[in-house]
Design goal:
Keywords: 4Fe-4S, Iron, Iron-sulfur, Metal-binding, Molybdenum, Nitrate assimilation, Oxidoreductase. This is Molybdopterin-dependent oxidoreductase. GO terms for molecular function: 4 iron, 4 sulfur cluster binding; metal ion binding; molybdopterin cofactor binding; oxidoreductase activity. By secondary structure, the protein is α/β, with parallel strands linked by helices. Helix content is 30%, strand content 18%. The chain has 28 helices and 34 strands. The chain has a seven-stranded mixed beta sheet, sandwiched between helices. Strand 6, helix 3 and strand 7 form a beta-alpha-beta unit. Helix 8 crosses helix 11 and helix 16 crosses helix 18. The structure holds ligand MGD (2 copies), iron/sulfur cluster and molybdenum atom (MO). The site of iron/sulfur cluster has 14 residues, from helix 1 and helix 7.
Length: 868
């Protein structure tokens, strides 16, 4: 079967993928992001392209409608709101997962034809502080370097980035570089120990939000130890003295680090010329995120370590097209092509190029304010595309209510049932990955093609086309008469020709005039691509910044005071290795549900002891506006007084585990980015009367207060808890498993609150239900594998017989290797990740679990070695 060359739809690494319609997926050996490798999520893409759960036709008020009816209604409602209440009464909330062509037309419609800048994106929750920090320092939103800089650096500092799980292929490139050059040093700055910390020579568990204090200290030491590049600063930088004064004035003790740790870091940084500082959401998602970004940029500017091989600050982007969205101007405070909304020349040029009736002349509402305006009744029509704000926004329960409060809401998604889609008046079926075509830009400014290799299912349409249909029905026909993504891209490149005169960093005028065939054949290309064919691989080595005087600006930044938590906890949130955001795609792949199958909180042993929380029991996290219930994972990886909870779970998979219910909508005053890593919460045990584990060949349903479901290769499984134990366990089991018929075999010890039910039909096991007063000990993988087979009542033992080993919780999802298998291999003498791979297969496919294998090797006291 022929393979189509496309790009992974998940993270901002932007890996090249070879895909075919039968679900075969391979890494593209020729793509400069990944050279053939894929991580666990990329490798499992073939399992996520099923049509199960897909939205295949437009729906109006939950009834099937034609495209004609649905788009006419959307156009009519938006036009009516604009006519009656003005252009700022409508809004689009879009996504860094849209393709550039989708994003371009959405932005054009809102800013140039509706005449409002009320188009904001989930990138506000993701990259806004980096964008704002870049603009303050460089005069524009530029990522100066390239991925090769990671490999060429002698020191890589990872700040607030769990690269091992969130940008796995970049992490693997870093691991390989460090293996090849063992002198390379890696520092990881994160309040928490993560899979990334394992690679680090130095892990700095700083207090939350004290990054500015640390980098200010570094700047002061750079100055006092004579490491300033005076020539570079004199020629290319403003604001040095003020920034230094602020740095000297700040107190590094708020980091909570020891003097020795601080000195190790300072010496390493100052004495290593080739240093790359990679940063991500631990920096951005904060009420002081923009200042943290500038504190980092200050150190690189003061030393002139920017834009040269192996040197520079590097903001790694989260979503596949976070960068493309920034380029087309998809944020409420930006104009297209890195131009400024406030600049009349910029506005004129864009308006003329678009031949637009109007052009927005003031910033629109940023995400948190946008949903507040929905709650306040100021937004009369809202269109959400390719994002799930009812889950991913802070204060999510109120955001859901705010969306309900909007008189007319449209949601474009690929799925029928999402938490946000449930609130929509109109649901529009979008074509998904593999079905649509366009471009995305990765973290290193590289534009790659996504290409279709599947037919459009049902009545789905690509997002750009849906937007153009509505624009045409609103009366903006000519400007939206595109018939292909290539035509959209051609116009975008032509706009770049018109805006090139402003001399901005972003320039793709060299791609103007690309025809369909050229577009189809477009190879991964880094911008700028200027009309004269020139490019800039790295920016700013010789200055050339984008402020009026071509100089960069160092900012005086003040760290926030470190507040002791007292009774409250600091709630840190983020990601796990095998799920993507609100799980609409990754949770369809059973192998991705094996790694961490339910919402949890990492909590420090001292806190757990104090609160009376035992491992694997449940705890409740309460914020000002709402709460969540998740599993306790007791570990000293998190500091006392803090907990870490993943962001992924939704009403579809674990309604109680929606962590954003407990996160307050506090934002950074400069960027408007929410402080998703720093909510104040209280933590208490959730008093469960019973814990249950269920597996069925049917979807599991339960109204109990804690239910976390996931798909398996044989059906579904769930973890369930309640505060009152049922009287009739068989009835409870049958309802939960959705199995009326067949024969139930039961084991009950009423006195100890233990009940085990297995349901058989025609000699096959259809479902099991294990309940106990304490967290149930069952070999989950083993039991799930038996569903649908001719198992015996022996299954009620919950563990395999002595002749069959229990592999334990999955560590390697590609090769399906469990922790017990790995531990056994280690006690049999495996001492390296490679040796573990040879005897168990773990880590030999995508390699995403290698950091965990490494951690296991470190953790387990080597009994064999002692015996030798
Ligand atoms: N598997 C997977 N990969 C993904 C995604 C996914 O959903 N799943 N999403 C993608 C997207 S959109 C994004 S934005 C990226 C995010 O990628 P990352 O930013 O790497 O991931 P996070 O887990 O959100 O947060 C990173 C770390 O910040 C730390 N942190 C919290 N507070 C602070 C602080 O005050 N200072 C410092 N220095 N660190 C702090 C947290 O402990 C956490 O380990 O991942 C992308 N890749
Ligand atoms: N507490 C906490 N909250 C967070 C974060 C955190 O670290 N902590 N991180 C934040 C960050 S960085 C981000 S990026 C956001 C992500 O949060 P969201 O963007 O809300 O999450 P996704 O699950 O990626 O949502 C994408 C939606 O688009 C749909 N979709 C997929 N493909 C297409 C398509 O081609 N067209 C259309 N129209 N729809 C499609 C999917 O089914 C899904 O419903 O979450 C933010 N929220
Ligand atoms: S690192 Fe993984 S998720 Fe990210 S683009 Fe590459 S294959 Fe996709
Ligand atoms: Mo993100």
């Amino acid at each position: 079967m022929s393979m189509t060359c496309t790009t992974c739809p998940y993270c901002g690494v932007g890996c090249g993928v070879l895909a075919s319609a039968d679900g075969t997926i391979k890494g593209d050996p020729d793509h400069p992001s990944n050279f053939g490798r894929l991580c666990s999520k990329g490798s499992a893409l073939g399992e996520t392209i099923t049509l199960e759960g897909r939205l295949l036709a437009p729906m109006v008020n939950k009834q099937r409608a034609s495209w004609e009816e649905a788009t006419a209604l959307v156009a009519e409602k938006f036009s009516a709101a604009i006519k009656e209440h003005g252009p700022d009464s409508v809004a689009f909330y879009v996504s860094g997962q849209l393709l550039t062509e989708d994003y371009y037309v959405a932005n054009k419609l809102m800013k140039g034809f509706i005449g409002s800048a009320n188009i904001d994106t989930n990138s506000r929750l993701c990259m806004a502080s980096s964008v704002a920090g870049h603009k303050r320092a460089f005069g524009t939103d530029t990522v100066p370097g390239t991925y090769e800089d990671f490999e060429e650096a002698d020191l890589v500092v990872l700040v607030g980035s769990n690269l091992a799980w969130c940008h796995p292929i970049l992490f693997q490139r870093l691991v390989a570089a460090k293996q090849a050059r063992p002198d390379m040093r890696v520092v990881n700055i994160d309040p928490r120990v993560t899979a990334t910390s394992d690679l680090a020579d130095l892990h700095l568990a700083i207090n939350a939000d004290s990054d500015t204090a640390l980098f200010n200290h570094l700047l002061a030491e750079i100055a006092s130890r004579g490491a300033v590049d005076d020539d570079y600063v004199a020629k290319n930088v403003n604001g040095f003295a003020d920034a230094l004064a602020a740095a000297q004035d700040s107190d590094v003790s708020s980091t909570g680090l020891s003097a020795a740790e601080i000195e190790d870091f300072t010496k390493l940084w100052i004495n290593t010329e080739r240093v790359v500082t990679i940063y991500s959401q631990g920096v951005n998602q904060s009420a002081v995120g923009t200042d943290k970004v500038n504190a980092i940029l200050n150190c690189h500017l003061a030393t002139g370590r920017i834009g040269r091989a192996g040197m520079g600050p590097f903001s790694v982007t989260g979503q596949p097209n976070a960068m493309g969205g920034r380029e087309v101007g998809g944020l409420a405070n930006m104009l297209a092509n890195h131009l400024d909304l406030e600049n009349p020349d910029h506005r004129d040029t864009v308006q003329t190029a678009w031949n637009a009736p109007v052009i927005a002349d003031h910033a629109g509402l940023k995400a948190v304010d946008l949903f507040q305006a929905c709650a306040d009744g100021k937004i009369k029509a809202l269109w959400v595309m390719s994002t799930n704000p009812a889950v991913s926004m802070p204060d999510a329960a109120n955001v859901a209510q705010a969306i309900e409060n909007v008189p007319f809401t449209v949601v474009s998604d690929i799925l029928k049932d999402t938490d946000t889609g449930a609130l929509a008046d109109v649901l529009l079926p979008a074509a998904g990955w593999g079905e649509k075509s366009g471009t995305v830009t990765n973290s290193e400014r590289r534009i790659s093609r996504q290409r279709a290799f599947l037919p459009l299912p049902g009545e789905t349409r690509p997002d750009w086309q849906i937007i153009c249909d509505v624009a045409q029905k609103m009366g903006f026909g000519e400007a939206f008469e595109f018939t292909s993504p290539a035509e959209v891209f051609a116009e975008y490149a032509a706009l770049s020709e018109a805006t090139a005169k402003f001399g901005k960093d972003f320039d793709i005028s060299g791609l103007a005039g690309l025809d369909e065939a050229d577009y189809d054949a477009l190879k991964p290309t880094q911008w700028p691509i200027r009309a004269n064919g020139s490019t800039t691989e790295r920016f700013f080595a010789d200055g050339g910044f984008f402020h009026a005087d071509s100089k960069a600006k160092m900012l005086p930044v003040k760290p926030p005071k470190h507040a002791e938590n007292g009774e409250t906890f600091r709630l840190n949130t983020g990601r796990i290795r095998d799920q993507w955001h609100t799980m609409t795609r990754t949770a369809r792949a059973p192998r991705l549900n094996q790694h961490l199958a339910e919402p949890f909180a990492e909590i420090n042993p001292t806190d757990a002891l104090r609160l009376g929380i035992k491992d694997a029991t449940l705890l409740r996290i309460s914020g000002e506006h709402g709460s969540a219930v998740v599993r306790a994972m007791i570990t000293s990886k998190v500091q006392a007084g803090t907990i870490f909870v993943p962001m992924h779970w939704t009403a579809q998979f674990a309604a109680s585990g929606r962590v954003n219910h407990a996160v307050a909508p506090v934002t950074d005053p400069v960027s408007g980015q929410p402080a998703l890593k720093g909510a104040d919460v209280t933590v208490a045990p959730f008093e469960a009367a019973f814990y249950a584990f269920a597996a069925s060949d049917q979807p599991i349903e339960s109204a109990r207060p804690y239910v976390a479901k996931s798909k398996t290769t044989t059906g579904w499984k769930a973890e369930i808890s309640g505060q009152r134990a049922p009287k009739d366990w068989e009835k409870e089991a049958r309802e939960t498993l959705d199995l009326d018929g067949g024969e139930a075999v039961m084991l009950e010890d009423a006195q100890n609150g233990i009940a085990r039910v297995a349901i058989f039909e025609e000699g096959r096991l259809r479902g099991v239900y294990f309940a106990a007063r304490t967290p149930v000990a069952v070999a989950r993988g083993y039991v799930c594998d038996l569903i649908g087979s001719e198992a015996s009542a022996q299954v009620l033992a919950g563990v395999p017989g002595a002749d069959q080993p229990d592999p334990g919780a999955t560590v390697c999802s590609c090769m399906n290797v469990g922790i017990n298998t790995l531990k056994a291999a280690i006690s049999d003498g495996a001492r390296t990740v490679e040796a573990l791979g040879e005897c168990t297969g773990a880590g030999t496919n995508c390699g995403s679990c290698k950091p965990e294998l490494q951690a296991l090797l470190k953790d387990i006291p080597s009994m064999k070695v002692a015996a030798e």
